[in-house]
Amino acid sequence: MTKLHLAPPSPRAFKVLAVARYLGLDFELCPIDLLNGAQRTPEFTALNPNQKMPVLEEDGFVLWESNAIMQYLAAKKPEAGLVHTDPRRCADVARWQFWENAHWDPACATLIFERLLKKLFGQGDPNPAEVEKGEAAVRRFGAVLDRWLAGRRFLCGDELTLADFSVGAWLNYADRAAYPIDELRQVRRWYAGLVELPAWRESIVVPPA
Fold first, then answer.
1. Which long-range CB contacts under 8 A does 55-58 form with residues at least 24 apart?
2. d(CA 29, CA 41)
3. H/E stretch holding 107
4. At CA 39, angle to CA 36 and CA 45, rounded to 5?
5. 75 and 92 in one domain?
6. Is the peptide bond prior to 54 cis by the omega test (within 30 degrees of 0)?
7. pTM over 0.85
């Protein structure tokens, strides 16, 4: 049995969970209580010495890093089309997953932390300098995403791929964390289509305000 150790409200966990459900895979959901430090227990640290989730555990095989987990899950059902064998199409999907990890994740995560998680973790008010930094990054990289999506149904053309799950996951918090993306019409159009996926809607979990 595949076990997915994750904290469902997190975008990093969401994209793994949504892919698993989209593919119709059997798995056991093992929630990680980040608020109470479950990621720092000896048991979890033995699975991931980085003390971060998500983690996949399967018959002695342990895998961490959300995009790697997504790739592994998608490889179980290649007929679903989330991964490709063509080198250029495969590289295109990988390009956007790397972009998400290097640019989009840090930008969006800054605003989520400052405007939502700080209060939840009892760490005080948002830091104006960090908020300004996060907004600038979201504007910069959001503009890249918006231009790319013009004329495209999904990130890699007309077919849904892992790239859409990786990048789109962060937009689940766009309104709550007040991303400055009102003018990004292509991004909003694309995300509205993703939310129509049953697996996407089923996987959205938001922390209490």
1. 55/4, 55/5, 55/6, 56/2, 56/3, 56/4, 56/5, 56/16, 57/2, 57/3, 57/5, 57/30, 58/1, 58/2, 58/3
2. 18
3. helix 105-112
4. 145
5. no
6. yes
7. yes
Answer yes or no: do 38 and 61 share one domain.
yes
**74/175 same-domain check:** no
Query: Which of 64, 80, 96 is the last residue in one of the domains?
Result: 80
Residue 128's domain comprises 87-197
113 and 183, same domain (yes or no)? yes
For 101-156, the pLDDT digits (tens) are 999 999 999 999 999 999 888 889 999 999 999 999 999 999 999 999 999 999 99
Sign (positive/negative) of CA torsion 165, 81, 28, 65?
Answer: negative
CATH number, domain containing residue 110: 1.20.1050.10
- Distances from the Cα of 185 to the Cαs of 135, 140, 160, 180, 188, in angstroms? 17, 15, 19, 12, 5
- The number of folded domains in the chain is 2
Please check the confidence at residue 207 and state whether its pLDDT lies above 90: no
Same domain, 95 and 193: yes
| Residue indicated by tokens 């949504």 | 18
- For the chain, the C-alpha Rg in angstroms (whole number) is 17
Among candidate residues 16, 49, 80, the one where a domain is terminated: 80
